[in-house]
């Protein structure tokens, strides 16, 4: 039986539905430099990562290496393109997810959001959804808050410290990408969950050997009761 004291959720593709706008923008910024990468390739090699690192990894996967100056320049282009992309973007959550978060918190489980986005981007998404600290979630940890991004466990460790949870076996980590699951495993979380609403397919998620794979997080409360 798994007792959960802290649930850590990735944002985009997991609790935030932003139609993959960030990765579409990342794809655009890279392809402006002469690449011809499709979105699936960008998601396969960049999903869940801090976005500067994602650019390096995507380019390296395509050509076997990356130019550090070019990667930095693409990252700067990406940030400007993303501001424009977000101006008129309608951001929502997935059906039943907000209610699931409320139920978790009502049962005494703390909720952390973590993301490979920088803090400004993450907060912009939350503001568009009208999610508030202390209501839908208890702490937000972004790429800006740690030295090492996913799959390193630093963001989960930061959430544990801020929420005073000291035993990894009481932590559930859920996300839509393989790297989310790897992050949870590297943090020794008691439960890791892949969800098929975002970057990776069920088959891809299963390759990382999570505890469970779900098609929706809406039923997570019921699942926890039977763990």
UniProtKB/TrEMBL annotation:
<keyword id="KW-0378">Hydrolase</keyword>
<dbReference type="InterPro" id="IPR050155">
    <property type="entry name" value="HAD-like_hydrolase_sf"/>
</dbReference>
<dbReference type="GO" id="GO:0008967">
    <property type="term" value="F:phosphoglycolate phosphatase activity"/>
</dbReference>
<dbReference type="Pfam" id="PF13419">
    <property type="entry name" value="HAD_2"/>
</dbReference>
<dbReference type="InterPro" id="IPR023198">
    <property type="entry name" value="PGP-like_dom2"/>
</dbReference>
<dbReference type="GO" id="GO:0006281">
    <property type="term" value="P:DNA repair"/>
</dbReference>
<dbReference type="InterPro" id="IPR023214">
    <property type="entry name" value="HAD_sf"/>
</dbReference>
<dbReference type="InterPro" id="IPR006439">
    <property type="entry name" value="HAD-SF_hydro_IA"/>
</dbReference>
<dbReference type="InterPro" id="IPR036412">
    <property type="entry name" value="HAD-like_sf"/>
</dbReference>
<dbReference type="GO" id="GO:0005829">
    <property type="term" value="C:cytosol"/>
</dbReference>
<protein>
    <submittedName>
        <fullName>Phosphonatase-like hydrolase</fullName>
    </submittedName>
</protein>
<dbReference type="InterPro" id="IPR041492">
    <property type="entry name" value="HAD_2"/>
</dbReference>
<dbReference type="InterPro" id="IPR022468">
    <property type="entry name" value="PhnX-like"/>
</dbReference>
